[in-house]
């Protein structure tokens, strides 16, 4: 990759259960990305405990930021702006990163930019990528907290097309994994179990919500629970059939969108992108539709500060002024 040009921006995300800081040059070249995962802390509870998450953020944030500057070989004097997640997220978690970033920007005397966490996930496939991604772009975010389709005619102005009416896709995977007795976070464990099962033995009633860009996962989640109670099928077969049903819902909405709108590229962000079966289906959609599908590199699928720093750079270039007077927005949408 040629030497990156442009200002250095530091980004912080503490929206949920990962404490993260990334340093990005010119909006795209990641100089460092440090993510301190809290999975092992929340695992015994089978899900995220908000109070525990914010306390862990407090304990880790200073170390994570220091580690990110060290790994990037960058001093605070070289940083031109600081970005932090303004929302959506858990209030107690958001507050830690937001106030830390604000205090740091005051101390260094540089602009402070609030970033929408969902827009940052949609931006994550642009990180460390040399080739240009053509607009209009169709964006899909599939994470533990969100499932939505977005559309942008120009960089990076995404507007919402549709979203889940109940569970997020990762949340549904985690809940079914829990029903099957798999450890938290369940998505990757469910994927492993599914590899040993057949997706064809159990029929799932997939809710497609025709004519909308909305998703629904609670019906198939309940069906998984019922099938498990029947005690007729193996854990592996339930995992494989449920995973297939989730992927079918995602694929059908993507296809509906590319058949309804002018789309030159597709970007997908969020933790569920790590799923190999889903990646295969996305690659099939790319071949069939002739529309390139761009995925973030694995380290940027999870919540990370680099995607916040990258998007903050472009927001700054567009003239977004410093937001030192603003507060977190836990319910922020697109
Ligand atoms: P995020 O909210 O973006 O941090 O993503 C976390 C979500 O991604 C959780 O619900 C995980 O279970 C899910 N996830 C992570 N890896 C996989 C995988 N390989 N297959 C399915 N879901 C996954
Ligand atoms: Mg996220």
Describe the structure.
The chain has 334 residues and is α/β, with parallel strands linked by helices. It folds into two domains: 134 residues, 2-Layer Sandwich (Nucleotidyltransferase, domain 5); 164 residues, 2-Layer Sandwich (Nucleotidyltransferase, domain 5), CATH 3.30.420. The protein is built from ten helices and ten strands. The strands form two sheets. The chain has a five-stranded mixed β-sheet with strand order 3-2-1-4-5, with helices on both faces. Strands 8-7-6-9-10 form a five-stranded mixed β-sheet, sandwiched between helices. Helix 2 runs parallel beside helix 3 and helix 7 runs antiparallel to helix 8. The chain is globular, with a radius of gyration of 20 Å. The site of adenosine monophosphate (AMP) has 18 residues, from helix 5 and helix 6.
Briefly note the CATH topology name of the largest domain. Nucleotidyltransferase, domain 5
The CATH homologous superfamily of the largest domain: ATPase, nucleotide binding domain
Strand content: 15-25%
Based on CA atoms alone, the radius of gyration comes out at: 20 Å
